[in-house]
């Protein structure tokens, strides 16, 4: 299973996220479908680090994601970002290979071209033994 699949499954299993984004959360990998209802979001992997030694790869990786949440109001975007942060910050699931996730930063703005408020989270997911 990929890190992206695990991240989406975590969001879909979190009550605070599904309360705001629907039972099949409107938080999409990479691209938001045209016409998606608000609030909605997306997550995009922006970097992957794979530590190595001179003798072998330990199978560890750290995938960094940008998670964008859009809503019609800044309060709506912040509420969505808060739900995502609560789902992902300090997330550990060793049986799935997730050794820990951290929300490293947040930002908010108004996107004039979309006429929507946006909150952005930077999330790092540390894994072992999964397709990163």
Give an account of the 3D structure.
The protein has 132 residues and is an alpha+beta fold. The chain has a single domain (3-128), classed as 2-Layer Sandwich (STM4215-like), CATH 3.30.2000. It contains 3 helices and 5 strands. It has helices at 3-12, 15-21, 74-88, and strands spanning 27-29, 40-49, 60-71, 98-111, 116-128. Strands 1-2-3-5-4 form a 5-stranded mixed sheet, with helices on one face. Strand 4 and strand 5 (116-128) form a beta hairpin. Helix 2 (15-21) packs antiparallel against helix 3. The longest helix is centred in the middle third of the chain and has 15 residues, at 74-88. The model has no long low-confidence stretch (mean pLDDT 92).
Features:
single chain, about 130 residues, alpha+beta, STM4215-like, 5-stranded mixed beta sheet, 5 strands, about 25% helix
Low-confidence stretches: none
Question: In percent terms, what proportion of residues is strand?
Answer: 35-45%
Q: In whole angstroms, how far apart are the ends?
A: 9 Å
Number of helices: 3
Largest sheet: 5 strands, mixed
- CATH fold annotation: STM4215-like
Quaternary state reads single chain
Structural classification: alpha+beta
Reading off the top of the CATH hierarchy, the class is best stated as Alpha Beta
CATH architecture assignment? 2-Layer Sandwich
SSE string, helix = H, strand = E? Answer: HHEEEHEE
The helicity comes to 10-25%
Mean pLDDT: 92
Q: Order of strands across the widest beta sheet?
A: 1-2-3-5-4
CATH fourth-tier homologous superfamily = Phage tail protein-like
Task: Give the domain tally.
Answer: 1
The Cα radius of gyration reads: 15 Å
The beta-strand count equals 5
């Amino acid at each position: 299973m990929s890190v992206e699949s695990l991240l989406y499954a975590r969001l879909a299993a979190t009550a605070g996220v599904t309360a705001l984004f629907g039972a099949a959360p409107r938080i999409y990998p990479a691209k938001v479908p045209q016409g998606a209802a608000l609030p909605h979001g997306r997550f995009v992997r922006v970097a992957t680090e794979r530590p190595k030694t001179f003798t072998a790869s330990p199978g560890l990786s750290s995938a960094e994601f940008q998670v964008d949440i859009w809503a019609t109001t800044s309060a709506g975007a912040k509420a969505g970002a808060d739900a995502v942060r609560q789902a992902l910050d300090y997330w550990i699931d060793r049986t799935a290979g997730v050794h820990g996730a951290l929300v490293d930063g947040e930002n908010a703005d108004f996107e004039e071209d979309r006429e929507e408020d946006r909150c952005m989270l930077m999330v790092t997911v540390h894994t072992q033994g999964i397709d990163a």
